[in-house]
Amino acid sequence: xxxxxxxxxxxxxxxxxxxxxxxxxxxxxxxxxxxxxxxxxxxxxxxxxxxxxxxxxxxxxxxxxxxxxxxxxxxxxxxxxxxxxxxxxxxxxxxxxxxxxxxxxxxxxxxxxxxxxxxxxxxxxxxxxxxxxxxxxxxxxxxxxxxxxxxxxxxxxxxxxxxxxxxxxxxxxxxxxxxxxxxxxxxxxxxxxxxxxxxxxxxxxxxxxxxxxxxxxxxxxxxxxxxxxxxxxxxxxxxxxxxxxxxxxxxxxxxxxxxxxxxxxxxxxxxxxxxxxxxxxxxxxxxxxxxx
Length: 292
Ligand code: GLN
What we know:
The protein is globular, with a radius of gyration of 21 Å. The chain folds into two domains: 8-56, no CATH class; 77-291, Vaccinia Virus protein VP39 (Rossmann fold), CATH 3.40.50.150. The strands form two sheets. A seven-stranded mixed β-sheet has the order 5-4-3-6-7-9-8, with helices on both faces. A two-stranded antiparallel sheet has the order 1-2. Strand 4 (147-153), helix 8 (156-169) and strand 5 form a beta-alpha-beta unit. The protein starts with 7 loop residues before the first helix and ends with a strand. The protein has helices spanning 8-19, 23-27, 31-37, 40-54, 59-63, 87-109, 131-143, 156-169, 218-221, 232-244, 260-269, and strands at residues 65-68, 71-74, 120-125, 147-153, 173-177, 191-196, 245-254, 273-279, 285-291. By secondary structure, it is α/β, with parallel strands linked by helices. Bound molecules: glutamine.
């Protein structure tokens, strides 16, 4: 087998997926012992996946899933592969939700006329695999936080993938197709939180030809209209968000490593207060949040 060029964890992931065996089975055997124990069909599948991976196809697309925030999400070339750095956006969203839930709870507790806590309205723009909306739903259910989630994507194929993921995780999410807030049409909805990991890579960024990126949907990386600074979609989202947020509602967006000052300015110009940037776990500036 031509497996030596792949890192050990990728070989293990392919072996486990193709044969249904677990990591300890592979760890306890030499490559020769593994080869001997596998059936001809298993060996062929391992060889095929290995060759495709060595040719550059993303591991997540070959296996059909990626772990994100401790959960498994189905992926395919119609959706961006969930990134570790985007877990920071989910953490930040959970922090906002937790604060809003405790504010609402104490308001309800001090008002005898109030009957119950209303569900917080949350909107995920450009949901892709659905990892953010579903990750929020899973975490909110575990905490007993009442959330009503809406997730938007322009791509029908992406929405199908997100729907499958929502079914798999038992998440109740309203999915809408369309470009950013346009998907909401004439809706009267107002949101407590809007979050988005939009396309933000500049049209000429050399990273676009590296790693997994050439295989991912360009619409999720550079947007449907590639642009020089990568900020066009963030301009639309930040500019239109105030019309869709309740007073006091929050906007949270992910951005590229060098875009934080511009995104902070965009949010301030759109009327947001408490605008702060945060870094991801590698220390790279990665998201901005602001309150209306
Ligand atoms: N963070 C991703 C990358 O740099 C891009 C995702 C995006 O554009 N939203 O590969």
